[in-house]
């Protein structure tokens, strides 16, 4: 299992890794070095650090990465490889094809910054990535997290219909994330995510400022850190300025997200586009109402008017109105929270996602044999 950060493997694929090991498979976790690699080793997993520059566009660096990957795959002799995120999908698929590895699974966990960026500056890069997908994904199995992304890939012939599967997200542990009563006191609205502009951080702050100007009594918190490897990252100085202005609280990264959701009244993610956000299915499992954008990925979790509210993307005014409607109505928040929990249990449990993924693995092995 190869991803572009050890944080991704730890936060999104740990349950799957544990299930693989428990059934007797030999597993290697591969990612760039970071603080979460040693944590995975301490849990008994075999994790290997692998250099990968996430932002580099240097073709020579890319060639060197492929050669390192060829050497590692030749040494490990995997029966099946599973790649996550764009560079890992492209480099991993190329190395696998060159070595004759036939069981290749690639997860498209969202279209990413290049597909969402506007203007011509990124057009050539998007074209290059689309060409690479078209060339390298043809003889692999591709997992999509929402039907919109799948439709984009199939329409552009970036993936093959008979080799594509829809598995919605990485699942949520519904035993760890469970409903608790909303705390007393001022309602708390949280945005839990990497702090990127395309997560709707600017719109969230603008909505918070608007509501405070109108005299709405509530707290607003950003829960997460900026990501200096992502071009859309919100700079820490901007976060500090907002906090100094007292429009929002900035909590930073939290490992105990189940406790964070328990403190909240509403969970908000006004993102521009997602694969399928884990924060929303965690919030749903915790029985919280959700306000999010009516975009691919987000609308997979929220049924408008049932367990939350969908708002137009990039519209801070509509976001403020949706938050206002829930902040003034605790009964509605409670009813929506009940529906959120039911949806999480039925559609997004980690056991369901693992079962679907393992079924795809078996299809790959059967096809190879």
What can you see in these coordinates?
This protein is of the alpha/beta class and 369 residues long. The protein has two domains: 6-171 and 350-368, Rossmann fold; 188-347, Glycogen Phosphorylase B (Rossmann fold). The chain is built from 15 helices and twelve strands. The longest helix has 19 residues, at 350-368. It is globular. The model has no long low-confidence stretch (mean pLDDT 94).
- Approximate helicity band: 40-55%
As residue ranges, the low-confidence spans are none
> What's the architecture of the largest domain, going by CATH?
3-Layer(aba) Sandwich
CATH homologous superfamily designation of the largest domain:
Glycogen Phosphorylase B
CATH class of the largest domain: Alpha Beta
> If you compute it from the alpha carbons, what radius of gyration comes out, rounded to the nearest whole angstrom?
21 Å
Task: Strand order, main sheet: write it out.
Answer: 9-8-7-10-11-12
Termini separation = 21 Å
């Amino acid at each position: 299992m190869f991803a572009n950060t050890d944080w991704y493997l730890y936060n999104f694929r740990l349950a799957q890794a544990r299930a693989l090991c428990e059934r007797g498979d030999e597993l290697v976790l591969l990612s760039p070095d970071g603080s979460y690699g040693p944590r995975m080793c301490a849990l008994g997993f075999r994790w290997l650090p692998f250099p990968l520059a996430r932002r580099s566009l240097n073709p020579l660096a890319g060639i060197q990465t492929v050669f390192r990957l060829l050497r590692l795959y030749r040494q490990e002799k995997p029966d099946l490889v599973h790649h996550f995120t764009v560079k890992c999908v492209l480099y991993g698929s190329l190395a696998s094809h060159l070595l004759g590895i036939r069981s290749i699974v690639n997860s498209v966990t969202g279209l990413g910054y290049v597909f969402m960026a506007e203007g011509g500056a990124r057009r050539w890069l998007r074209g290059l990535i689309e060409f690479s997908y078209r060339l390298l994904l043809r003889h692999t199995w591709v997992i999509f997290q929402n039907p919109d992304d799948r439709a984009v890939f199939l329409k552009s012939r970036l993936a093959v219909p008979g080799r594509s599967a829809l598995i919605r997200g990485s699942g949520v542990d519904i035993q760890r994330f469970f409903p608790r009563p909303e705390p007393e006191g001022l309602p708390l609205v949280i945005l839990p995510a990497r702090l990127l502009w395309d997560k709707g951080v600017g719109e969230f702050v603008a909505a918070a400022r608007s509501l405070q100007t109108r005299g709405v009594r509530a707290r607003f918190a950003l829960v997460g850190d900026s990501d200096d490897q992502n071009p859309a990252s919100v700079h820490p100085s901007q976060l500090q300025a907002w906090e100094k202005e007292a429009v929002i609280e900035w909590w930073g990264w939290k490992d105990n997200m189940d406790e964070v959701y328990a403190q909240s009244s509403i969970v908000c993610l006004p993102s521009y586009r997602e694969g399928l956000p884990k924060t929303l299915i965690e919030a749903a499992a915790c029985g919280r109402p959700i306000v999010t954008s009516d975009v691919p990925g987000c609308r997979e979790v929220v049924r408008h008017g049932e367990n939350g509210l969908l708002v137009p993307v990039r519209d801070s005014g509509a976001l403020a109105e949706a938050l206002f409607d829930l902040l003034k109505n605790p009964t509605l928040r409670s009813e929506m929270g009940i529906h959120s929990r039911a949806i999480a249990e039925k559609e997004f449990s980690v056991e369901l996602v693992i079962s679907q993924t393992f079924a795809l693995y078996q299809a790959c092995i059967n096809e190879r044999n």
